[in-house]
Amino acid sequence: MKRYDVLIVGAGHGGAQAAIALRQRKFEGSIAIVGEEPEIPYERPPLSKDYFSGDKTFERILIRPAAFWEERDVAMLTGKRVVKVDPAAHTVSTEDCETIGYGELIWAAGGHARRLTCAGHDLIGVHSVRTRADVDRMIGELATTTRVAVIGGGYIGLEAAAVLAKFGKQVTVLEAQDRVLARVAGEPLSRFYEAEHRAHGVDVRLGVSVECIEEKDGHAAGVRLAGGETVETEMVIVGVGIVPAVEPLMAAGARAGNGVAVDEHGRTSLPHIFAIGDCAMHANAYAEGLPIRLESVQNANDLATTVARAITGDPEPYNSVPWFWSNQYDLRLQTVGLSSGHDSTVTRGDVASRSFSIVYLKQGHVVALDCVNAVKDYVQGKALVVGRVTPDLDALANPDVPLKVLATNGPS
Q: Average pLDDT of 370-383?
């Protein structure tokens, strides 16, 4: 049986960063990364953007080249899915019945794309956007595809829709709620992106419910909506969130909710087992201490570094400000903070100019910013979020007043 001092389950951003941070902190023990996919760690955000569009090759989205891992003596156990964790024996078991031992286990398995449950969800031509293989299958079908239905108006769905629109496809976005980005942004930003997609020829439909995927010769041929209308299509892209990949930890007795629960150092309730990234539920200071699960590169990387510090005997609690980004058409959206629970918004700049920021406030203090083609606001706005600043609202709305000036006003 192979055994490693640190075994990392998951070859995404969090798993890769955990190994990098351990070596940076002079950890000399053995390290291995176990990944379900055949590839070594690669960036996930470009899958629905630059990789899908062909602007970046796969080699350009590798987190590090193969030689990097070899030089740092990080073993890559690719193409292996962990299905069982035995905390008492300090082992994991893979789907192909291999047993691997560990001293410390870092669970960075992320999640799997949430699938539809309706009839036709498994037809040829129905896709998720979670792995390189997912996107390669979509690319392989583009030549025979004229019409695409995107189910879900979140970031993944909208980013894919933007790429497909640029390819000249007829794209229909089907969103169950009354606006796109409803879970992650305020209404002004939602309406802006709806208008942008429509201006690029995308048919954005809100408040619609999918009844089933219709087939023709075993292939997806349409999306039937509640009420009977069918949106004809040759390709269906499903972007309705992820299911955290935590079943083996839960079966082993780990405390869990919406993901596996971790403390401020990334520890689960199981001894010598940490969890990071999309699957880890943690109390977040920027969500007023509520337990949340963040699906972002920032969270994966920063929590990985927190765990590396704990393992190497230099613990520091996780307290990073969340940030996210999205590229659609020529629009660069950068978000800092968490807007959930806000009670008011202020818009900086002219939305029609396609360069503006929406500032989210709660009880007068800044909790988040959505910055569209407004890099300075994004960079300077972080201090407002971290400092819980209560700014003058007129000055906040004036794009000629730099946010760094308002940051000196101090916390609420």
A: 96
